[in-house]
């Protein structure tokens, strides 16, 4: 059985694992003040050409989202997300459990536009309702689409004109930035969003995400907040060692490019067979629509999610490739499909 279920089926890239082994017996400061974390943060800042952002290394995506959103909002304030948004559907109400409602709006390709946000604002008029304050987006999105620079600029402008915080979940930011259709760079992001995170877990790290806080007013006391929410690891070095390895050279981008290349192969080959896709997703997640009988046969040899029923005889499946996906597995899948 070969799994195309997700991009965290494997452990860590060998270089990251080696770095953890090699640093194992060194004595380091705790709670993210070790030399590895400090150096990793320095490298990420250098990549962005920005020394004025705050970076915190956190263990996982849900943890990062709930930490950031609950720190940025006042008690009566709410987040806005696309109806497919991860915080809305797949985080067990983690944001709501911090006291903040998540307001959802239908967005066909999983991407929010100023018009979507305006619709939510227009429906929330006074103090008898929660106050929409933070716009949550992810790049790539839950359905594999990506934001281009113009779309982000428009969203950023709208958010700033309306005194909203723009927060980007980057669980799969590597894949988005390395997409053939992408026109954004990591260094563009501090200008475009108020905070975002760089996902490590789904891009070759054992665990870890790097939260980047760009807007000054959101930075204060964040470490207090982390500690109180149980997110400050005594052995924070584990995150530092990994991010240092990912950003000491191009490893982060190389791993994401590999994942994208494998998805592209699947997309191209299925496309040649006239297979339609549920959504345009130029990243490492694709959603081909297949006959149910064929899906059942493929399930004998491959693991993947059945994403949604399309009609009585067809369903969209989700195929996710990763930094570790083997080209032979992609070829075998295509051969079996044929
Ligand atoms: C876009 C996005 N955000 C956040 C998460 C949550 O990450 P974790 O499972 O590490 O909590 C995921 C996980 O699938 C995700 O896809």
UniProtKB/TrEMBL annotation:
Top-level lineage group: Bacteria
**GO-annotated biological processes:** amino acid metabolic process
Give the molecular function GO annotations: lyase activity
Q: Required co-factor?
A: pyridoxal 5'-phosphate
Alphabetized UniProt keyword annotations = Lyase, Pyridoxal phosphate
Q: Which residues form the Aromatic amino acid beta-eliminating lyase/threonine aldolase domain?
A: 18-280
Family per record: Belongs to the threonine aldolase family.
This chain belongs to the protein called Aromatic amino acid beta-eliminating lyase/threonine aldolase
Q: What is the lineage of its organism?
A: Bacteria, Bacillati, Bacillota, Bacilli, Bacillales
């Amino acid at each position: 059985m070969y799994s195309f279920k997700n991009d965290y089926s494997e452990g860590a890239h060998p270089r990251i694992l080696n770095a953890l082994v090699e640093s194992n017996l060194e004595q380091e400061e705790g709670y993210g003040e070790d030399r590895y974390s400090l150096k990793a943060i320095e490298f990420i800042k250098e990549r962005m050409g920005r020394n004025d952002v705050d970076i915190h290394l956190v263990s996982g995506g849900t943890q990062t989202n709930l930490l950031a959103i609950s720190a940025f909002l006042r008690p009566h304030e709410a987040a806005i997300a696309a109806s497919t948004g991860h915080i809305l559907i797949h985080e067990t109400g983690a944001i709501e459990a911090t006291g903040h409602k998540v307001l959802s709006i239908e967005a066909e390709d999983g991407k929010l536009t100023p018009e979507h946000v305006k619709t939510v604002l227009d429906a929330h008029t006074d103090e008898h309702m929660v106050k929409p304050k933070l716009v949550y987006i992810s790049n790539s999105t839950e359905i594999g689409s990506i934001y281009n620079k113009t779309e982000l600029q428009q969203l950023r402008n709208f958010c700033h004109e309306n005194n909203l915080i723009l927060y980007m979940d980057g669980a799969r930011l590597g894949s988005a930035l390395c997409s053939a259709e992408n026109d954004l760079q990591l260094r563009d992001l501090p200008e475009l969003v108020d905070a975002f995170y760089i996902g490590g877990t789904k891009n070759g790290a054992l665990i870890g995400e790097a939260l980047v806080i760009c807007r000054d007013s959101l930075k204060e006391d964040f470490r207090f907040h982390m500690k109180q929410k149980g997110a400050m690891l005594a052995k924070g070095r584990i995150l530092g060692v990994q991010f240092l390895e990912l950003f000491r050279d191009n490893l982060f981008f190389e791993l994401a490019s590999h994942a994208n290349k494998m998805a592209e192969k699947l997309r191209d080959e299925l496309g040649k067979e006239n297979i339609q896709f549920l959504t345009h997703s130029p990243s490492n997640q694709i959603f081909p629509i297949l006959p149910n009988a064929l899906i059942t046969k493929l399930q004998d040899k491959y693991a993947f999610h059945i994403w949604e029923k399309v009609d009585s005889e067809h369903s969209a499946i989700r195929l996710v490739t990763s930094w570790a996906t083997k080209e032979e597995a992609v070829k075998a899948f295509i051969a079996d499909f044929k």
